[in-house]
Protein: Hydroxyproline O-galactosyltransferase GALT6
Amino acid sequence: MKRANLDLLFSVSRQRSTRVLIVMGLFYILFMSFEVPFVFKNGLGSVSQEGLFSSGNGLLNPKAFALDSEENLEEKDAPVRPLDVPYKSRPERKLFSSLNFTAGIVNLSLESGILKAAKDALDLGGKVLRELELIGKNRSDRGLNGVNGSSSSNSEFCPHSMSVTGDEFSKKGRVMVLPCGLTLGSHITVVGIPRPAHAETDPKISLLKEGQYVMVSQFMMELQGLKTVEGEDPPRILHFNPRLKGDWSGKPVIEHNTCYRMQWGTSQRCEGWKSRADEETVDDLVKCEKWIRDDDNGSEESKATWWLKRLIGRTKKVAIDWPFPFVEGKLFVLTLSAGLEGYHVNVDGRHITSFPYRTGFTLEDATGLSLNGDIDVHSIFAASLPTSHPSFAPQRHLDLSDTWKAPPIPEGPVEMFIGILSAGNHFAERMAVRKSWMQHKLIKSSKVVVRFFVALHARKEVNIEVKREAEFFGDIVIVPYMDNYDLVVLKTVAICEYGVRTVSAKYIMKGDDDTFVRVDAIITEAKKVPDSRSLYIGNINYYHKPLRSGKWAVTYEEWPEEDYPPYANGPGYIISSDIANSILSDFEKHKLRLFKMEDVSVGMWVEKFNSSRPVEYVHSLKFCQFGCIEDYITAHYQSPRQMICLWNKLRQQGKPSCCNMR
Ligand SMILES: *[C@@H]1O[C@H](CO)[C@@H](O)[C@H](O)[C@H]1NC(C)=O
Ligand SMILES: *[C@@H]1O[C@H](CO)[C@@H](O)[C@H](O)[C@H]1NC(C)=O
Ligand SMILES: *[C@@H]1O[C@H](CO)[C@@H](O)[C@H](O)[C@H]1NC(C)=O
Ligand SMILES: *[C@@H]1O[C@H](CO)[C@@H](O)[C@H](O)[C@H]1NC(C)=O
Ligand SMILES: *[C@@H]1O[C@H](CO)[C@@H](O)[C@H](O)[C@H]1NC(C)=O
Ligand SMILES: *[C@@H]1O[C@H](CO)[C@@H](O)[C@H](O)[C@H]1NC(C)=O
Structure:
């Protein structure tokens, strides 16, 4: 577990973890050499002290900041920027999708929002693309440094510490930007006052009937990955939510969670009981400290008697309980710090909770601190921050080794083509796919061909890097429009086009860059259907209805019908090439109806196809949508680290079992 957590801090790359281990060793020696005299000096007196002020986080001791050298170590042996890496250009490989998107949507009416969006995205995309192509042409004249301009932009300089007052914080939308994220030992101190409870009718944290309300006082402190994902809510790397009043349990609690790709994890609730002794600790601290609950007045000892006993000289270690750390209208000083294994929260000098690192995000990705809810912020201080940001430079994620290059497309027909939807800046995700299931022998031998489908990014530097990545690995197809959540469906058409025209595959599969695919299992699944039949395989939803309210509402203009057709969940499904071909020809004849939900669109197209030629619908829960199940065929929401872990398990144990760490 320790190893795993460490890896998380320093990215997935294997070679680095050796370095990390060495540094860990140094750290240990350093720590011991300080800690041992410390114990001696303080002698017995310090023993009972520990009960009072929980020993806290060793990392907060000034001596531990020697750890900052870790960053330096890494910087020293990593080249400043591997610009000289030989990106060989392979003109024979198609970088761009050859589907004529303009032709496909030119004659469709502009009434529906998606077509307007598509036109705009294509127009802008066209401009960006021409720019990109020019850069490609000029590169040969100017050598590899042709994109000099963009490369210097990653050497962002960041302050070692930052502070804002409450007013400044409110003016900036209650988000404090940490331009280079956090690093090991970084800490953020928030001085604030919880506001008194207010009447709340939105039954988010309490179960309510119509017309009822509840008095609620709660606030949310979040570390967000502001720059990691485009077109989605930023991932919440840490969500810290003290509920002073209004939790359904009727007690004050503190909830912790993470939200990756808009998917919440399981929450960690601290309800005033100390974590069980057998529970996993975080840097040797418990996940939840005890506080006085109004229903356990028996065990409480008043501070006066405690002091009395101490004066009399009782040697027995006495534990003292404190009340819930947040009180309406009372000032608190909260410090959040980044340890080796997780985040630690201290309030008014006492350790309250710890939350182990979960997602595939690194500390550097935590580029924003937001505070919302019933809280008045007085000031925020962040210190021991990293002063340079190695990230956003894809070089951190890309491993430019020939091993990971895609084999060329064979002359003859291919069994299966897998198109993976990916966003421009998902460098780490793509690399994890390359290093995991794309190493399957069926892919290495070109029986199965895999390509990433990436649209243009709003940031020019990202596009330049994607193009270079595409040229090096040969496994990216760039679709010429500006990326947009509602236009994912166009990528699916591009996948059909590539699968039918470029690869001549028998089956076409669509996946996401956080989908883990068992390549042999999907072939087996497809082979179960006789060769002559058309097929549609996946985790199929029957009788689903559009959501008509809320953030993800579908309007009646967008989808007039009451029901959706049967459709396979988007993270992994297979169609036969005849269906793909008909999708493509409908698109080119301007007859293809486009809907913003990509998976529903495919369900609709297959249903239409089925009306003229029967399609075999194969439903399997093993195309897991919500995560991973044992014996999965595909697993979804897998972070880069989990991808590698799943692949290792598959190879070493020969069976598909999940990796449940995040
Ligand atoms: C795409 O189609 C449009 C309209 O049919 C046409 O004007 C354009 O030249 C086509 N583009 C390519 C690259 O074939
Ligand atoms: C668009 O539709 C009109 C009439 O429906 C047709 O004459 C024209 O050829 C179509 N344009 C394209 C590019 O197919
Ligand atoms: C490419 O080079 C030409 C002249 O060689 C120049 O006019 C043009 O601006 C350059 N384009 C870019 C994107 O650098
Ligand atoms: C390229 O980078 C170097 C050093 O970063 C800088 O001095 C030079 O001006 C840059 N050249 C261009 C054309 O941006
Ligand atoms: C706490 O005190 C209340 C009233 O003083 C009493 O009803 C309750 O039983 C006590 N709870 C415990 C666990 O002793
Ligand atoms: C496919 O078509 C057949 C024959 O028309 C029909 O019986 C079946 O219900 C259709 N399947 C779906 C899922 O629409």
